[in-house]
Input
Amino acid sequence: MRSQAGTVATDPRNPQVQAALQRWLGELEAMQQLQFSTDPGLIECRAAADSVLRQVQDLVASQKQKTLMRAIAAASPTEDQAAQAGSAPAKSCEAIPISLAAKDVGLLQKIMEQQCRVPGADDAFFESAQDDKLAAAAGTRMKAGVKTAAAGSPTEKSQAMCLAVFLPPSVAGSNDPHGPPVSAIIGDLNAIVFIEGKKKPGTAGG
Amino acid sequence: MPLSASTLSGALTQAGQAAAGALSTAGKDLQGAFTTFVVPELQKIAAQIVSIEERTATGLLTEDAAKFMLAGQCDHTQSTVAAVSELTIFEVQNILNAALGAVRDVVNGAVHFALIP
Output
């Protein structure tokens, strides 16, 4: 990702970038559904889920995220709603890291919108471009001394801005190998794996 | 004056420790988990804030992207600490809010926008 930062390969309007983000959200949605369907109900945390949902709601932009929101809401009714529907309310906190991961994928999308748009490439470029044209443009690195972007080619600043998303903080005290948006998602995924590990009898952590 | 990661980290830790103490009960002492799990995350947040200050000052980071980045870092802290320690998401949130609240004015003044709401 870093080698192509600032090119059309990382432009949030690139269909391949959009497809990758949507695929992640789809996979998280599936994990969320599975989590709720096997809810062990160990921890009472309806309020915690509400808090996370409110944060995710602010980020809802895509249809996938809306679908995810509906799935979470449907799977975790309030006690009144559950009583009306004749079902038990979901009580598990185990699903929260999955909700946070979905929120962080939404954050990455928003950060890339801010930082990784290639100047000179308008929306029509991405709508009309075929995969081979995008692949060729993605290979277009900024040439030395070129400060003004032609269509689909990055500038020195646009590359540096997009790299700022993926490079770790370059200050003392930081030993993170990734930029914050990627680290956040990795952290959420690690938390999910750790929690799943704790559920299994006889495994570490539990 | 530019922010210092070590100074920020100290201020975040001091305020977070007070919050962890206030949240502790006779049945659940949060101080140990705070030192082991939260302090290293607060150091990362301090480094992240300093990096944000540098990058926004040079125009490499937009204000919105900076806010999203800090939010992502806080999510990372919440999910990681809640997964590996006995602290709940709520407790981590409360500690983080107290820690960030303690440095809000200094940080927002240094970056010249409301990075910490």
In short: Chain A has one domain: 2-199. The CA atoms of residues 132 and 138 of chain A lie 10 Å apart.
